[in-house]
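agent: user wants the structure for Prephenate dehydrogenase from Microbacterium helvum. delegating to structure tool.
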Amino acid sequence: MSEPAVLASRVHGTVRIVGTGLLGASIGHALRVNGVDVALDDTSPSQLRLAIDYGAGRRASDTDDPTLVVVAVPPDVTADVIERELARYPHAVVTDVASVKLEPLRTLRERGVDLTHYIGSHPLAGRERGGAISARADIFVGRPWVVCRDRETSATDLALVEGLALDLGATPLEMSPEDHDRSVALVSHVPQLVASLLAGRFVDAPDGSLRLAGQGVRDTTRIAASAPELWVQILGANAAPVVDVLDLLAADLASVADALRDPDAPGARRAVADTIRRGNDGVERLPGKHGQNRRYEQVVVMVDDTPGQLGRLFGELGELDVNVEDLRLEHSPGAQFGLAEISVVPSAVRRAVDGLEARGWKIASTTND
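agent: tool returned. relaying tokens verbatim.
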């Protein structure tokens, strides 16, 4: 994926970033692409040096006069750092990128902090691995960036924070802290727990069982590789909304388990079918590429496990005037080929299949098979 292309930066002056982990360093990289002066600060000297060495920005100076401060620190110290930065730079706009918005705001209000120039925000972007070494400029492209304004927020301050999101290729969305925390509980925090719980079942599983693992279980448990230390803080700060979703999910699981205890009982098979169907309906509501609700068909192509084959496949799809909307790769253990699941618009399926088969590719399946 290419770096975000921005014609003119909406963010001006110096941007101070406190915290040089994945999000902080990634913001630094993306801003520097746009020619913005980025000053980095971190309580960890080694993390700071690493972010600077990778090009995320320069070391912050006591003489800096930032127009925007981005706080990108762990949730348990977010409120402390916001308070400090507001006091140190009273004329700067201060935002944070913590994944929980209500708890830091409550803490700051209880302390009586002047929040005139504070706007909470949260880019819905990330990777399974953290740290400056994993940072990249393009992780925000096409992702939502929640901005939590209030009645006291000035239009100028709001424009600066939303301009940051736009400069990084994200899509700013205004939400209240309460709505944000309930939303991320459902689409981010509970999925992390579900993935971790399922992956935890693998610890004592026989090796033979795990050798059967395909792409489905890898997709389901991908985020289980996330850092426990960070997630303990996130889940603790957003506990109530997470518990609400977990209670509903636990009831759903209990219902399915009851049905499967006696699959031949009246209504049992319907209960299972309704569960799967409801999942179908839920997936259909998820936004697709570029946030659209447009749906795609899948063409699965067998690809030899040799250098250059994927490049050749993409090149020949381009010659067929077929755009690849999404791609998933699956490798079977011991097999000398992989399966490339290519998402295309429905009108391009037949053109893709016929054209690829004419060029010698083997089509494993399509959506309608």
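agent: one observation worth passing along. Residues 1-7 have pLDDT under 50 and may be disordered.
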